[in-house]
Amino acid sequence: MWTQLVLGVMLSTTAWSVPNPTIRYDGHKVLQILPKTIEDVHELLSLAKKYHLDIWKSPRYLNETFDVRVDPEQITDFVNDIEALGLKANHWITDVQKLIDEISSGRNRRATFSIGAFNDHASINAYLDSLASANPHVTVHTMGNSYEGRAIKYVKISNNLGVNKKAIYADGGIHAREWLAVTTVLYFIDQIANNPSRDRTIDALLGKFDFYFAPVVNPDGYEYSRSHDRMWRKNRRPVISGCNGVDLNRNFAYHWNPDNGGSRNPCEEVHAGTHATSEIETKHLQNFLCSHSNLIAYLNVHTYGQYWIYPWGYTPILPTDYRDLDHLGRSAATAIRHTHGRTFTVGEDTRVLYAAAGGADDYAKGACGVKYSYTVELRDTGLHGFVAPTSYIIPAGEETFAGFKAFATELVHYEHL
Ligand SMILES: [Zn+2]
């Protein structure tokens, strides 16, 4: 029966239709609150739990905002509680549905895949297949299937020269609603496979590395965010009656702990699963990461907040080689700033404020030994938040790819590759 269901979803969300998610967010606001102390952050987190709010951005450092989506019925009580703490709630996005509608009207209406559009999952997979058949440097593979049976595909881009090349891997879409992460990984694929500007840096990097890219590692969630709920974050496996999905980026089997930045409650956005690797998508990704022993670097791409951060997510204690990760992260951030002027913060995942155990970056480094493992949070800093407009796709691709090239180039020098 579910096959019919999947087919129905796929048919209704092809690239040439303009999907309109059925769940609406009329009158929902995103509030930005600036905590003054670490205690304020903890108070805000427990208030968000009390009201079951959707946290858009939790500060990783002091002087950063806490962004949270609030529905119209809760706003008065929540703002009163915020003010009782001596804090001020800035009404940042005044109507989430209006933002979603703006993006829908700019959605790709063409029948073909486009690098500059938010494409559906079937079109993305078809694009990867066509790229592989047209380009001798590209091969397409499947990590496995998602819970609802969608193929989680990745490409390998290699010029096949030289032996024992190190490899760099990047993936997107582990969180369903973070569509800009998907488009940015696709942008990387297009740039490296097709090299449209005949960039010699790309040729040089292909002489040093093999590249792996998986644009959509949570395809069920991605399609659901297109067809039903633009704010969906998790995968789609039914966990208990009425509540589906596990936050895949809390489900990895390295220091997995739902009480450390996740949740045991299946109805919450950050539900970590009943045990580590409870989800088939997590399992496929773990297998991929640990079975490619030549991987030296991994980027787990998300939106938003503009960070280039490294493990650990589960503890504020730094890895012993953090200086190496920090140095290369700074190379990336400098190149990003020189592209469109955006500032990315480089640092450890956790620091004091934001612990989250069970993340993909911790697993890659801790369990598989991928030394340069990062979580990259793309633009912006809250203006559109998760509802990135179509006009962001190309500039976000450009700036992040500039960071990626600088990172990989510096990696060659730094590790004497
Ligand atoms: Zn994310």
TrEMBL record:
Residues 117-411 form the Peptidase M14 domain. Residues 1-17 form the signal peptide. Keywords: Carboxypeptidase, Disulfide bond, Hydrolase, Metal-binding, Metalloprotease, Protease, Secreted, Signal, Zinc. This is Peptidase M14 domain-containing protein. The active site is at E377. InterPro entries: M14A-like_propep (IPR036990), M14A_act_pep (IPR003146), Peptidase_M14 (IPR000834). It is found in: Secreted. Involved in the digestion of the blood meal. Its main location: secreted. One of its GO terms (biological process) is proteolysis. GO terms for molecular function: metallocarboxypeptidase activity; zinc ion binding. It comes from the Eukaryota. Its cofactor is Zn(2+).
